[in-house]
What we know:
By secondary structure, the chain is α+β, with helices and mostly antiparallel strands. The chain has 6 helices and 4 strands. The chain has helices at 3-6, 12-23, 29-36, 40-52, 85-97, 122-133; strands at 72-80, 101-106, 113-119, 139-146.
Amino acid sequence: MEKEALKPDLDEVDLSILGYLQEDGRLSNARLAEHLSLSETPCWRRRKRLEAAGYIEGYQANLNRRKLGYGVLAFVQLSVSIHTDEATARFENVVLSCPEVIACHNITGQADFLLQVVATDLDSYGQFIDRVFRKLPEIRAIHSSVSLREIKSSHRLPLL
């Protein structure tokens, strides 16, 4: 895929800015400008334009879940039996209120939703499932897969 196919209103400098910030969101404007061989003001303006246009949604630190005590990473497929707007809104509100759920996607296939859930251990994961999802009347089936070993985890997008 050519860079033009990604987003025609982004030029090479914009893509470079996004690449550097994806690598290190703490990069100062001065250092970023130095990497790009730009002066600071045009670099800052481009960065702010990318933020305002929604290409940059925010900045965050990537934390080590194991060091923080989250030894379990589970992928949970949920199937629902009730597809009304009210049931969907209720389910989404529950998911949004659970910090253990670090990602949730409405998907195609046999399940309706795919979640990533962290827990300190298998017991706490089981308690979370019982306390939260088994109590929702619209949940028809829950299928969990626990990660045995993480090979790659990234939020970085290919900028080509």
